[in-house]
Design brief:
This protein is α+β, with helices and mostly antiparallel strands. It folds into three domains: 112 residues, Butyryl-Coa Dehydrogenase, subunit A, domain 1; 108 residues, Butyryl-CoA Dehydrogenase, subunit A, domain 2; 146 residues, Butyryl-CoA Dehydrogenase, subunit A, domain 3, CATH 1.20.140.10. The chain has twelve helices and eight strands. Bound molecules: flavin-adenine dinucleotide.
Length: 381
């Protein structure tokens, strides 16, 4: 029995998206990996084809899709062997902040261009001395008449180079409680005082642009405050359940893709004995274990998605899913790499890039240690 009930519209969306990605995205993955960036034109093509911000109502450029659309998108993007086009981050993490907390004026101004791919968004929380501990953020946002002046620096910001609109977390230095003083602000590319630092070199996810962002007396209109002043922390927390579910489903889809690919290749490859490695019992057992992990992960995450769509609070289970699925994905790639031997290390192999790329997933969207801390706290341990 399927846990998630996909309609004909969902299935049609998946089919069209899968065909689009196979034609317009996957063939360019190697080039983008070398360029260390995805061209803005690829984002634009995604937008024009209707594959960005599908959950927005039609009036803002979307199709009013439910949460199954982000799930489908995360699954299909996981099959493209590239991580640079962070369309899920844009459509399903950043833009929902603007839709949920923006004023009507802000929504009309930005959302249609987010859906069309003309604006690529980013969210900037992390600072050189503030990662997991958001209370340690030092970026300040001070009101001055009709404007807000932002000062500070952010680092490891996904889409940092390509972005046209960043949600920046900053605090009012006059408020002592670091959580109560935190707010979210929209800063457009080109605003005086907003500059990029380094385009960061990472061990993996080479096609994804990750950058340092600097704000030096950066003045934005007061209207660019998202939601209530001081509500930044609770807004970030409110959206995390959804973000972590998207991350978990991407991890399960990635693990499934890798183990299925591995089985295909291992079946076809003859070793010195003249038999394929899948005829060796220890390898058979290992592959069965990996496939079992994928099935367990999928069942767990799909159940959480269904409950999330019914409005349930599944925060504790979601943090469990985030750490378990991303650990499982790393285990899967590592084990398949062992089975491939030296072939697995060849840059021509899907696994070499996969091994580097999936490593980050235990760190971003909240580190896996923090996930366990949150679960322990919620369980009253
Ligand atoms: C490729 C990439 C893309 C990213 N994109 C973005 C982005 O778009 N926007 C953004 O804002 N940030 C982004 N980040 C940053 C990411 O969110 C942070 O790396 C993450 O929050 C962890 O922070 P940190 O790296 O500073 O580690 P730290 O918080 O310094 O943690 C270091 C280690 O200590 C552990 N630790 C920390 N606190 C505790 C504790 N209380 N108890 C137990 N263990 C603890 C952590 O689990 C970790 O193992 C990105 C990072 C990468 C690598």
């Amino acid at each position: 029995m399927d846990i998630l009930k996909y309609t004909e519209e969902h299935n049609d969306f998946r089919k069209r998206l899968s065909e689009f990605l196979a034609k317009e995205i996957t063939p360019y993955a190697d080039q983008w990996e070398k360029d260390h960036i995805v061209p803005k034109s690829a984002w634009k093509k995604m937008g024009e084809a209707g594959f960005l911000c599908y959950c927005l109502p039609k009036e803002y450029g979307g199709i009013g899709g439910d949460f199954l659309y982000p799930i489908i998108a995360a699954e299909e993007l996981a099959k493209t062997n590239q991580t640079g086009l962070m369309a899920s981050l844009h459509s399903d993490v950043v833009v929902p902040y603007i839709y949920t907390y923006g004023t009507e004026e802000i929504k009309k101004k930005y959302l249609p261009r987010c859906a069309s791919g003309d604006i690529i968004t980013a969210v900037a929380m992390t600072e050189p001395d503030a990662g997991s501990d958001l209370a340690a953020m030092t970026t300040t946002a001070v009101e001055d008449g009709d404007e807000i002046i932002i000062n500070g620096s952010k680092t490891f910001i996904s889409n940092g180079i390509n972005t046209g609109l960043v949600i920046v977390a900053g605090r009012d230095p006059a408020i002592e409680n670091p959580y109560a003083g935190l707010s979210l602000y929209l800063v457009e590319d080109g605003t005086p005082g907003f500059t990029r630092g380094r385009h960061l070199e990472k061990m993996g996810m080479h096609s994804q642009d990750t950058a340092e962002l600097f704000f030096t007396n950066c003045r934005i209109p007061k209207a660019n405050l998202l939601g209530e002043k001081g509500a930044g922390f609770s807004m970030l927390m409110a959206k995390l359940q959804q973000e972590r579910l998207v991350c978990s489903i991407g991890a399960v889809a990635g693990a499934q893709l890798i183990v299925e690919e591995a089985i295909k290749v291992l079946k076809e490859t003859k070793y010195t004995t003249g038999r394929s490695l899948t005829k060796t019992q220890s390898v058979q057992f290992g592959l069965v274990e990996l496939l079992t992990d994928v099935k367990i992960g999928r069942t767990f995450v799909e159940k959480l998605v269904a409950e999330h769509m019914e409005g349930a609070n599944v925060l504790t289970e979601t943090v469990m899913a985030k750490f378990w699925t991303t650990d499982m994905l790393n285990r899967t790639v590592s084990k398949c790499l062992d089975y491939f031997g030296d072939d697995g290390l060849s840059e021509e192999n899907l696994l070499a890039r996969g091994f580097r790329d999936v490593r980050i997933m235990t760190i971003f969207a909240g580190t896996n240690e923090i996930m366990k801390m949150v679960a322990a706290g919620n369980l009253g341990l």
